[in-house]
Design a protein that fits this description.
Its main location: membrane. It comes from marine sediment metagenome. The structure is a single chain. The chain is of the alpha/beta class. The protein has a single domain (about 5-120), classed as abc type-2 transporter like fold, CATH 3.40.1710.10. Helices cover about 45% and strands about 15% of the residues. The protein contains 4 helices and 4 strands, in the order E-H-E-H-E-H-E-H. It has helices at about 20-30, 50-60, 70-75, 90-125, and strands at about 5-15, 40-45, 65, 85. It has a 4-stranded mixed beta sheet with strand order 2-1-3-4, sandwiched between helices. The relative contact order is 0.15.
């Protein structure tokens, strides 16, 4: 019988914004390789950090992800958003795996937000509703 790899992650979700929800969804849907098994067993504990810390001490959680209030709006407004990850240090291998996974998720989130902002800026700078003047070209010619 094949062993299923699961990490119990407590999520203290103090933000209800779109970006926060996306992070939780991505975590909940992460798969291990080509297997159909989710990596994380998510335990949502909105706003209750003390309860999550108690579960971590008891060994019921491998880590706690804290998403602070206003996180989504901070990211959307180009301010620094801070996620806190508290990891059970009793297993260095799991600690390393969790840290790597969270860094990857944050990097992907930052890339996605940057692309969305760039596309948004480009769209607002383009005079889409104005026709091109007679005799103009869409792209400059190269000589």
């Amino acid at each position: 019988m094949e062993e299923v790899f699961k990490l119990a992650l407590g999520v203290v979700e103090n933000d209800r914004g779109e970006i926060s929800q996306n992070i939780v969804t991505v975590l909940g849907n992460m798969k291990l390789g080509d297997k159909n098994n989710n990596i994380f067993l998510l335990e949502r504990q909105p706003g209750n950090l003390e309860e999550a810390k108690e579960e971590l001490k008891k060994g019921n959680l491998n880590a706690i992800l804290i998403i602070p209030e206003g996180f989504s709006s901070d990211i959307k407004e180009s301010r620094q958003g801070i996620l806190t990850l508290i990891i059970d240090q009793s297993n260095p291998q799991i600690s390393s795996i969790l840290t790597g996974m969270m860094e990857k998720i944050v990097d992907e989130l930052a890339s996605k937000v940057a692309i969305e902002k760039l596309v948004g800026m480009m769209a607002t700078d383009l005079p889409i509703d104005k026709p091109a003047p007679p005799g103009s070209t869409i792209a400059p010619s190269l000589h």
